[in-house]
Amino acid sequence: RTGPTIEPANDIFLYLNVDDTFLLNGNPTREAWVTMEYWDGGTAAFTLNYDAGPGFPAETFKGAETGNRTDTGTWKTFTWHLTDASFNNREQGTADLRIGDSDTGDDNDLYISKVTVSTVDPAGPPPTTVVKGDVTGDGKVAITDVVTGLRIVAGLLTATADQLKAGDFNGNGKLDISEVIQILRVVAGLATF
């Protein structure tokens, strides 16, 4: 709960720190989605401020889009999309971001159930899991992956993005014969990934 009872100017923010093993200093990405689940009571606005990194001095949050409550009396979600998140633990109390309530009175405080930070768009399709060597996409590495890999190498099939993720071990952007041989060695029990 945000919302002041004493000294309103000093008590309108919820400060949050993102785990450094998840996102720190823009690594592994500067793109993040912050989703807040909140009680839609009252009509006040809410804000998100965050650490955008070296371009902003320490203890200076960058403002994100402002959201507005519409007094529906229901739980709602609001998502901010950040393209320059840094999260360097540089803000007040080593915070990475803060959510603010523009209603500084005691009425219609902002009640928050949950705040999540993701590096994948929560509104998008779930990411697919690609198994190394599984060129066919059936969840296992088998002789069919070798046959499909050979067909791709021979130019009889065009590799999909997932097939490249599964079979391009050397990172050259294509599936080549050495990688198909590696898959065959794994199928034969002579090697592992």
* Regions with little confidence, pLDDT below 50 for 5+ residues: 1-6
> What structural class do you assign from the helix and strand content?
alpha+beta
User: Number of DSSP strands?
Assistant: 8
User: H/E series, N to C?
Assistant: EEEEEEEEHHH
Q: Looking at the structure, what is the overall shape?
A: elongated
Taking the sheet with the most strands, its summary is: 5 strands, antiparallel
β-sheet strand percentage: 15-25%
Query: Helix amount, in percent?
Result: 10-25%
Through-space gap between termini: 49 Å
Contiguous helical run count: 3
Radius of gyration: 24 Å
Mean pLDDT, all residues: 86
Please describe what this structure looks like.
Helices cover 15% and strands 22% of the residues. Strands 1, 3, 4, 5 and 7 form a five-stranded antiparallel sheet that branches. It is elongated and about 70 Å long. The chain has helices at 143-153, 161-167, 177-187, and strands at 13-16, 32-39, 45-50, 62-63, 67-68, 75-82, 97-101, 112-118. Mean pLDDT is 86; it is low at 1-6. By secondary structure, it is an alpha+beta fold. It starts with 12 loop residues before the first strand and ends in a 6-residue tail after the last helix. α1 (143-153) runs antiparallel to α3 (177-187). The relative contact order is 0.18.
